[in-house]
UniProtKB/TrEMBL annotation:
Coiled coil spans: none
Matching PANTHER family: SLR0698 PROTEIN (PTHR40114:SF1)
All residue ranges annotated as the CYTH domain in the record: 1-64
Signal sequence segment: none
Name this polypeptide is given: CYTH domain-containing protein
InterPro entries in UniProt: CYTH-like_dom_sf, CYTH_domain, NeuTTM/CthTTM-like
Length: 64
């Protein structure tokens, strides 16, 4: 699977009125290999494990 890397800078406070829920999240990284990222996120009673590979040459895509 390819992940498309998109990031946006929000410079206005207007988005806050659209938010409907807040939650605490714990995040950690579990790998020692520079060619991939292994991340765990825990929110409430659920955990999410994500493994991401190196970005492709363009920097816009990477294996996930």
């Amino acid at each position: 699977m390819l992940e498309i890397e998109l990031k946006f800078l929000v410079s206005s406070e207007a988005f806050k009125k659209e938010a409907f829920k807040a939650s605490n999240m714990a995040q950690g990284f579990l790998n020692s290999n520079e060619s991939r990222c292994v991340r765990i996120r825990i929110t409430g009673d659920k955990g999410f494990l994500t493994i991401k590979g190196e970005s492709l040459a363009s920097g816009l895509f990477r294996l996930e």
